[in-house]
Amino acid sequence: MVLQSLQSSEEKKNGFLVPVGVSARHVHLTQEHVEELFGKGYQLTKKKELMGGQFAANEMVTIVGLKLRAIENVRVLGPVRKASQVEISATDAVKLGIKAPIRESGNVAGSAPIAIVGPKGALYLNEGCIVAQRHIHMSPADAMAAGVSDGQIVSVKADNERGTVFNHVKIRVDDSFTLEMHIDTDEANAAQIKTGETVMIMPS
């Protein structure tokens, strides 16, 4: 069973506990692309608040790979961005028939092409589809308590029946962030971790 207890002084000596959020496939869009997919003047509508001023929108789209393989009902996240981006799992990439690189969100240069279909139109991205690099969101206070800094790469342990260790986990620090490690559905299923369970940053 994954450790669920609150941080204690003894646990801090051995590592720093972090709750997990399992991130399903999703899409970020520019306002221009929102209107291409949903109609002129359309604005995303909020379903659920997320950290850092983001939100899960009510709107969903279909994503289509180069071999015309599709995944329906992919959630759009808001607010709109300067560049559109699709984040999927490695399993999704196989299903779509594309080679999506592992990247930090926003780093889409040279990434996989993909088509997005909405109720009012469709668009094709020459690049923009990635498998998100696993990462931990933290406030500056959490980073200080954990002894880590923005951009640092750490290892994280899930102390459950699978006993999984995640290497190459990037720390992301911002005043707007709530403490949470984000992994995709492939990683969560392989390690038998659910949203809300806890993992530990291993001491360096």
What do these coordinates show?
This protein is of the alpha/beta class. The protein is built from 5 helices and 14 strands. The strands form 2 sheets. It has a 6-stranded mixed barrel with strand order 1-13-10-12-11-14. A hairpin with a 5-residue loop joins strand 4 and strand 5. The longest helix is centred in the first third of the chain and has 8 residues. It is globular. The N terminus is likely disordered.
State the gist of this model:
The protein is an alpha/beta fold and 204 residues long. It is built from five helices and 14 strands. It has a six-stranded mixed β-barrel. A six-stranded mixed β-barrel has the order 2-5-4-8-9-6.
How many DSSP-defined strands? 14
The succession of helices and strands, N to C, reads HEEHEEEEHEEEEHEEEHE
- Give the N-to-C terminal Cα separation: 24 Å
Mean pLDDT: 92
Sheet with the most strands: spatial strand order: 1-13-10-12-11-14
| Shape annotation | globular
The radius of gyration over CA amounts to 18 Å
Q: How do the helices and strands line up, and which of them pair or pack?
A:
Elements: H1 9-14, E1 16-23, E2 26-28, H2 31-38, E3 46-49, E4 55-64, E5 70-78, E6 85-88, H3 90-96, E7 102-103, E8 112-117, E9 122-132, E10 135-138, H4 140-146, E11 153-158, E12 164-173, E13 180-184, H5 185-191, E14 198-201
Parallel strand pairs: 1-13, 2-5, 6-9, 7-9, 10-12
Antiparallel strand pairs: 1-14, 2-6, 3-4, 4-5, 4-8, 8-9, 10-13, 11-12, 11-14
